[in-house]
Amino acid sequence: MEKVKQAIPRRSVLIGVVLTMSISLVSQAHAQVNGADKILKAMADYVASQKTVSITYDSDVEVITSNLQKIQFTSSGQVQMSRPARLRANRTGGYKDIEIVFDGKMLTVNDKDAKGYAQIDVEGTADQLIDVLREKHGVVAPGADLLLSNVFDVLMSDVIDGVVIGKGVIDGIECDHLAFRNTETDWQIWIESGARPIPRKYVITSKAVAEAPQYTLRIKDWKTDVPADAFAFKPDQSAKKIAMSDHSDIDEVPQGTTKPGGKK
Q: 133 is in which domain, residue-wise?
């Protein structure tokens, strides 16, 4: 009993210290609330000013199964863009290897695993293409928002709170760490500090879904040199041309998986 009595006050002191630290951190974050949008706007302006962009990335998508088990699907890929109307993206995951090529007039979706590609006429900008992929073909790709020409307006459209958390380090690079909230999601972004404010990490937490699944994007390389022929699709000799409707599963999680995270 004496040991128990001695342990109680020590634990109380520890809890008090933790609570004091937590309150201090929250106060500091809210004190900097007005700076979060400025840092995000600087990133948005910088990204939109890049006429050509080439990035490599890793992404994680968490899903909640029908028996409330959290499962994470991980992919890697590359995105190449030439504004306003050219885009090439590939994503390799554990179950699917997909490539999308858009030259401003035609969209090609190439399933490398199944060796089948589909092509449809789609005219417009890369921004408009992202909307088409989401609305008509079920490709959510939350990270694509970061490359939109109006990325600031899109990200801030439903924000109800935003704070500067402080500094963070992603792959050895110092970043500004921001956190934002809306009614259904919390999202965080780490933006490289200094003269090149590019996004380095992006996390979306779906509060409206049980177990709060997350989507995480980590940008590894960011370059502005894109080969001249990057947006010309050259099918493999063994690949067959198919209808777009035959591409039954081209999103980041397998078909039939329930309650994915990452929808802002």
A: 34-246
Contact between 206 and 61 (Cβ < 8 Å): no
In a domain, 195, yes or no: yes
CA 83 – CA 149 distance, rounded (Å): 9
For the beta carbon of residue 240, count every other beta carbon within 10 angstroms. 11
Question: Is residue 6 in a domain?
Answer: no
Mean pLDDT, range 190-202, rounded to an integer: 98
Alpha carbon 9 to chain centroid distance?
Answer: 45
Helix (H, G, I), strand (E, B) or coil at 211: coil
Cis bond upstream, residue 84 (ω within 30): yes
Q: Would you say residue 40 lies in a domain?
A: yes
Distance CA 73, CA 85 (A): 30
Q: Is residue 263 part of a domain?
A: no
pTM for this prediction: 0.81
Total structural domains within the chain: 1
Q: Could you tell me the CATH number of the domain that includes residue 56?
A: 2.50.20.10
Q: What angle do CA 108, 109, 114 make, to 5 degrees?
A: 135
pLDDT tens-digit series, residues 88-114? 999 998 778 999 999 999 999 999 988
- What are the pLDDT digits (tens) for 25-78? 444 444 345 689 999 999 999 999 999 999 999 999 999 888 889 999 999 999
Spatial strand order of the sheet with 199-206 comes to: 161-170, 173-181, 185-192, 199-206, 214-223, 52-64, 70-82, 86-93, 97-102, 106-111, 116-121, 240-241
pLDDT in tens, 53-62: 999 999 999 9
